Automatic annotation (TrEMBL):
Organism: Clostridium kluyveri (strain NBRC 12016)
PANTHER family: CYTOCHROME C OXIDASE ASSEMBLY PROTEIN COX18, MITOCHONDRIAL, OXA1
The protein, known as: Membrane insertase YidC/Oxa/ALB C-terminal domain-containing protein
One BP annotation, GO: protein insertion into membrane
GO molecular-function terms, A-Z: membrane insertase activity
Gene Ontology terms: cellular component: plasma membrane
Main subcellular location: membrane
A Pfam family: 60KD_IMP
Length: 221
């Protein structure tokens, strides 16, 4: 983990040096470097992210079928589980797809926490409305909660199933937790999280749009 932390420190310093060569103003260059780093990280994990997102969207679409199987085999839970696994395999979905983004993001967040905690250059540096990237910002913390909620909301099914309601409740809880956590982090790290969520939202909307076009194209023929 220490190797990963050091690699992130060196990578961020490299990015910041290059941004500073174009934009000498530290109040802009540090924020831009954080946004650039976020974009690069999201591009690197894009293949995994797209795979996970498609799987999650499929899981949402097949929930009515899952519910039917649960009702059909409610007296035989083992058979119900077997039939659901067959359905997941047939549709190319995974019941654990929702865990993948967190599994990917947490090591990165831990590494960036180390980066910004050991980066003295951001002390007193402002960006946009943020007065100091080395201190907490309440509005940015609220944004982290909102964007965390939206990044999952757009992946959710539009049906009113019990599972959808449970997912909604968990989503609200996670968003509140992120606001609480963000109040204890430096704004530099929270800025990364907010930008990463915004990219995730855009990615979800694009993939859903492409998927809906594919689904409607045969009817137009």
């Amino acid at each position: 983990m220490q190797y990963l932390n050091n690699a992130f420190v060196q990578f961020f310093e490299f990015l910041h040096r290059n941004v500073t060569s174009l934009i000498p103003n530290q109040n802009i260059s540090y924020g831009i470097a954080i946004i650039l780093m976020t974009l690069i990280i999201r591009i690197i994990i894009l293949p995994l992210g797209v795979k996970q997102l498609k799987s999650s969207l499929i899981m949402n679409e097949i929930q009515p079928e899952v519910k039917k199987l649960q009702e059909k085999y409610k007296k035989d839970p083992q058979r119900a589980q077997q039939e659901m696994m067959k359905l997941y395999k047939e549709k190319g979905a995974s019941p654990f797809s929702g865990c993948l983004p967190l599994l990917i993001q947490w090591p990165i967040l831990i590494a960036l926490y180390y980066v910004f905690n050991n980066l003295s250059g951001i002390n007193g540096v402002s960006f946009l409305w943020i007065s100091d990237l080395a201190k907490r910002d309440i509005f940015l913390a609220i944004l982290s909660g909102i964007t965390t909620y939206l990044s999952t909301y757009f992946m959710m099914s539009s049906n009113n199933s019990e599972q959808a309601k449970q997912t909604q409740t968990m989503n609200i809880g996670m968003s509140g937790f992120m606001v609480f956590m963000s109040l204890g982090f430096k704004s530099a790290l929270v800025l990364y999280w907010v930008v990463s969520n915004l990219i995730q939202i855009a990615q979800t909307l694009v993939i859903k749009r492409i998927g809906s076009k594919k689904n409607t194209s045969p009817s137009k023929a």
